[in-house]
Amino acid sequence: MRALLQRVSKGSVQVDGKTLGEISRGLVILLGVRDGDGQEAVDHLAERIAHLRIFEDGEGKTNLSAAEVGAEMLVISQFTLYADCRRGRRPGFSYAARPEIAAPLYEAFKRKLGELGFKVAGGRFGAMMCVEIHNDGPFTIMLDSDEKRL
Predict the structure, then answer these.
(1) Is 150 a member of any domain?
(2) Which of 1, 17, 98, 123 qualifies as a FRET site for 80, CA 20 to 30 Å off?
(3) Structural domain boundaries enclosing 49
(4) 101 inside domain
(5) 58-77: b or e for each residue (b if 16 or more CB lie within 10 Å)?
(6) Phi and psi torsions of 7, nearest 5°
(7) Cα angle vertex 87, ends 85, 92, to 5°?
(8) Domain of 48: which CATH number?
(9) In a domain, 95, yes or no
C-alpha cells in the first residue's frame, strides 16, 4: 500500500460538480492499494501517518504529528501510484489491486484513521474526481507499507 501525503491548508474532492469531502488544515492522502495488501498494511500506514512529525511547531520546525495538531484527513483512492512505466509509453497497472480488493481496503483505511481520532473525508472509489489541494509548504511525502521501519 502506498500513500502520497500532502500537507495542506485545505482540500476538497468533487464528483460530477458535487463536493463529497472537504478538510481544513491537515493531509490529503492519495492512497494506492497493491495486489496482496491487507489489514496489516492499512494499520501500519494509518499509524505511521498519525504519528509522522511533519507539522510545524511554534519555532517553524517540523516537530509535530498529525495527531498532535488535530489534522484533518482527505483520503483519495489512487491506483496510479502503482503505475509501471518501465516499458513503452503507456503505463501498466498490473501491480495495483483489483477494485474488489482495493475498495474495501480503502474504506478500512479511512475507518482506521477515524478510530485514531481524525476527522476523515473521502472521494468515491473508482469515480473520476476533481481534487483541490492547497499544498502547505509545499510538503509532500511518499510512504509505502513495504518499508516497515518505525
Answers:
(1) no
(2) 17
(3) 2-144
(4) yes
(5) eeeeeeeebbeeebbbbbbb
(6) -70, 130
(7) 50
(8) 3.50.80.10
(9) yes
d(CA 125, CA 146): 23
Q: Is the peptide bond before 138 cis (omega within 30 degrees of 0)?
A: yes
CA atoms within 13 A on the CB side of 50: 18
The count of domains in the chain is 1
Residues classed as catalytic: 78-80
pLDDT in tens, the chain (150 residues): 999 999 999 999 999 999 999 999 999 999 999 999 999 999 999 999 999 999 999 999 999 999 999 999 999 999 999 999 999 899 999 999 999 999 999 999 999 999 999 999 999 999 999 999 999 999 999 999 887 654
> What is the residue type of 80?
T
Task: Please name the residue that has the C-alpha cell 479511512.
Answer: 110
